[in-house]
Amino acid sequence: MPNAAQLDDVITDGGRRLAISGRLTIKHVGSVVPAFQALQPDQRPLTIDLGGVVRIDTVGAWMVHRLLRDWQASGASAQIANASPAAKLLIDEIAANDTSCEIRPAMPNRLLHRLDLIGGSLINAVHTLGNFLAFVGMTLTVAAQTVFERRPLRWNAVIHQMEVVGLNALGIIGLLLFLVGIVVAQQGAVQLRQFGADIFVVNLIGRSTMREMGVLLTAIMVAGRSGSAFAAQIGSMKLGQEIDAMRSIGMSPTEVLVLPRVIAMSLMMVLLSFYGSVMAIVGGGLYVWIAMGIPPASFAARLQEVVPIHDVYIGLIKAPVFGVAIAITGCFQGMQVSDNAESVGDRTTQAVVQSIFLVIVLDAFFAVFFTAIDFG
């Protein structure tokens, strides 16, 4: 190969002299690699003559440096002769950066690592809880200012959000609760039939849907549908610096973005929960009519007898609270989006998970509370 590197190894009484010529580059160095690998350090002084080198790159510089390093490590002297300034500079740079490193980082103590993760998670949870409570306080403050200081409310935004949250969700919520009503009726009938108490399936359908399942399943569905949408919308606006632009012109993001969503969600949750409960009762009534022969008129009359009005009140009391929790959680997570697109997806997921968790916790609290005050 033209300009291929060549190596002349000369041993004299004064030591060992390696004369390298040609191109000591990655393309031309292959011819001398075996010779370099065959060289074993001995006690003779080594001189590497680079006077015949036409061109050298990092590969050639590394080979020369490694030979010098190994020779010096054995206790013998080694030096470079007739090297050009560029070659000397490159070899010196290679030598300065010849440091050992771990290919795989050392495994930490597993117990300490787990404790560190748990501690970090707890600190992050407390920090997030503090920020969330501050956000709730700010939202309530803006709501109070709107009511008592007669500040204008953006009704166009509220009505638009009511349409998005409520009207556009009628189909999916109605279908979901209708099917749940059929499942409750079918499973209840199977179990009650063993005791000859088929008629009490009406009690099961009416009380479970009006008091618990109707509002709870509606809230979970709305959290997954609208809570995530709130987080994604506000997060995208923050990512596009639209929220910063609002603040720069004196507009409050809480007043413009958060409050209309909270009001719309709290109002529509009441209507959606009642609508969902009715659809569940319709699904259960259809099943008992077809499978058990109970006509709709008898089913409706039985419902009026066994479902107390306070069950309806309990569902309607819980619904707006669930709506406020879902809306504030979704808006809060949207406000936490950082300066990258990946955080929008992360915050949207957290909004759904935290909304559903908060709804279930609130539902458990209401169950204990209403039982404690003997309200149904």
Description:
The chain has 12 helices and 4 strands. The protein is of the alpha/beta class and 376 residues long. β3, α2 (58-73) and β4 form a beta-alpha-beta unit. α6 (170-193) packs parallel to α9, α7 (201-239) packs antiparallel against α12 (342-372) and α11 packs antiparallel against α12. It is elongated.
What share of residues is helical? 55-70%
Radius of gyration: 38 Å
Poorly predicted runs are: none
- N- and C-termini, Cα separation: 96 Å
Mean pLDDT: 85
> Strands of the biggest beta sheet: in what spatial order?
1-2-3-4
Structural class: alpha/beta
Q: Assess the beta-strand content as a share of residues.
A: 5-15%
> What coarse outline follows from CA principal-axis ratios?
elongated
Report on the biggest sheet.
4 strands, mixed
Number of strands: 4
Count of separate structural domains: 2
> How many H/I helical runs?
12
* Order of helix and strand elements from N to C terminus: EEHEHEHHHHHHHHHH
